[in-house]
Amino acid sequence: MKRIPAGILLATLFFTVPLVPRTLAEESASQLADQDLGPDSGNQDQSAEALAQENGVADGASQDTDQSAQSLANQNGLADPSQDPEESASSLAKQQGLNAASPDESASKLAEQAGLEKKSKKVGSPAQSVFSGEGIDGSVYAIVAMADGSAIVGGRFTTVNGQPRANLARIKADGTLDPSFLAASTDGVNGAVYALAVDGSGNLLVGGYFTSAQGLPLQNFVRYLANGTIDPKFAEGQSPNGSVYAIAVQPDGKILIGGKFSQVGSTPRQNLARFNADSTLDAPVTAANSGAGTIRSLAVLANGAILAGGTFEIPGQPARNILTAP
Q: Alpha-carbon dihedral of residues 231, 273, 252, 148, nearest 10 degrees?
């Protein structure tokens, strides 16, 4: 065998051995880059786009935000002005303290905050105290005390202590729900009750924003007899064409109503009207009536004068939001 000179062998080793680790190092660096960034710039761009979409930066996210805003507007009743202002979804949202939702807040979460999601209800006993029991499942806008120590509550609700009640209920003197008063789901009214009063005979006067009472087509102002049945002849054909927010009974038996309406039956009456004791419509309370706005409260003073408050202006009178009449 021919021997290779030692000098040539050493020179060969010197120039070839360093090439191996350099090649391995370059391959390792390339593999690491592929693992972290993807094997080419195309995949890197796709990854960046995916990350942007996940973080709501891409155009699709802005479209979702617009849709969410529209959905929130619909939920808040901003697209439907036909509802009574007191009962609009927007008012309910403000009562619950809800602000415009961020994109992260789902409709389900908003529904939970507003208490709108359906939940199983525990049916209470009619004999259980309303104050220590389940209570009322909606808003109470009016309360009136009765001569026997009981109280009538009105508002916007469907159950009291788990028992069905259509926006009206009676709580007995011992704090329990009266099981016999307006117990059927149609015995009350089909809308919100804002005002309650009792006349000299112990009958219940009910004002609000509704179109039927005890299944009869009676609008916004009705009378229930002391036994809980509706009086269909009361103010017959003289329903106000808008919400009734206040009721007061004068010593002579005449009845005042205030609210947001322009007619009683077919007779012009601007937000304030008076009925005679026989429930026929009386003459206007004042020459100018209540002018533009809304009457929300009424009282009859000891001298018989009428006091009305709300948000209104009366032509020719400097005082705003309050009026007095003999």
A: 50
